[in-house]
Automatic annotation (TrEMBL):
Cited SUPFAM superfamilies: Periplasmic binding protein-like II (SSF53850), Winged helix' DNA-binding domain (SSF46785)
HTH lysR-type domain residues: 2-59
Domain of life per record: Bacteria
Gene Ontology, cellular component aspect: cytosol
UniProtKB keywords: DNA-binding, Transcription, Transcription regulation
Native source species: Anaerosporomusa subterranea
Pfam families from the UniProt entry: HTH_1 (PF00126), LysR_substrate (PF03466)
This protein's name: LysR family transcriptional regulator
Length: 303
């Protein structure tokens, strides 16, 4: 078994090109260093150095070992840092992904509070629909994902986010607009409207209408709420989106009414891959949440 000390000795010689200089750098005498390298060659069964009077040159085997040795040392250093970071985590990177409606509303609030506690952490943010976020989690590009329900609970651990209602978003002058001063609208009133829906909500909306003995008129389904809001802003139809998503489009031409009778509600969660290492930065972010299941507006620990 090759000793990690011998790996470091070997790298010092490879980098210095001289055993005397390497010994000085390592704060050891030259004869023991030479002996260690001879023992390493004997153990590996290859010649690592071509020894000259003043310089040593790596053989092909030595060049190969240097590449592997550098990788080993880098991995050792990274592992040591991660283990220390596991308990500290006041620096480093938080890699997180979020669906559009969360990335533009809830997440900025969380990041602001997180930065007050951990000002030296930097961020790697990815945005997309829930399927894209889980793909990024599976590939290890992000550590945490903020998604809409449902997701595979066998693959991911999670903390629930507050439920929020779905709203109908439209232009008041739209030909199919509902003229009412109320902040809500009955689902039945939307039955003959041209609906623009997210694919995540298609089954829920269709089932709710079936319970009323009705069939919705779905003009478009999409993986992203932004096109739906843009189409609604263009007067093409009525977008059915989470209430928080309404603030993502800056238009004075649109209004939003909460859907009731029955109410349509969507849930979300912060998820991460089960049984996979999470860096301390991710643990600290999860620490913003008080309980594993968050109810109502009690989103942050201590609030």
């Amino acid at each position: 078994m090759v000793d990690i000390r011998d790996i470091k000795y070997f790298l010092a010689i490879a980098e210095e090109g001289n055993i005397t200089a390497a010994a000085k750098r390592l704060h050891i005498a030259q004869p023991p260093l030479s002996r260690h390298m001879k023992e390493l060659e004997d153990q590996l069964g290859v010649q690592l150095f071509e020894r000259g009077k003043r310089k040593v040159k790596l053989t092909e085997a030595g060049i190969f070992l240097r590449t592997r040795a550098e990788q080993i040392i880098d991995l050792l250093n990274a592992t040591t840092t991660e283990l220390k970071d596991f308990y500290i985590g006041d620096r480093g990177t938080l890699a997180i992904g979020a669906v559009t409606s969360v990335a533009g509303t809830l997440l900025p609030q969380l990041i602001k509070i997180f930065r007050e506690r951990y000002p030296h952490v930097v961020f790697r943010l990815r945005e997309g629909e829930s399927r894209r976020i889980t793909e990024l989690l599976d590939s290890g590009i992000i550590d945490l994902g903020m998604v809409k329900l449902p997701f595979d609970t066998d693959l991911y651990d999670s903390i629930s986010l507050p439920n929020e209602p779905l709203v109908a978003v439209f232009r008041p002058e739209h030909p199919h607009a509902i003229c009412s001063d109320s902040d809500s609208i009955n689902l039945r009133e939307l039955v003959d409207k041209q609906l623009l829906i997210h694919r995540k909500f298609e089954a829920m909306i269709t089932k709710s209408y079936e319970q009323l003995g009705l069939t919705p008129s779905i003009l478009c389904e999409s993986d992203d709420v932004m096109p739906l809001l843009a189409w609604a802003d263009a007067g093409i139809g009525m977008a059915i989106v989470p209430k928080s998503a309404f603030s993502l489009i800056h238009s004075t031409r649109l209004i939003a009414k909460e859907i009731v009778n029955p109410s349509l509600v969507t849930g979300g969660a912060v998820i991460w891959v089960r049984n996979r290492y999470l860096p301390a930065t991710a643990h600290h972010f999860l620490g913003l949440f008080g309980n594993r299941n968050i109810e109502g507006k009690r989103v942050l620990a201590g609030q």
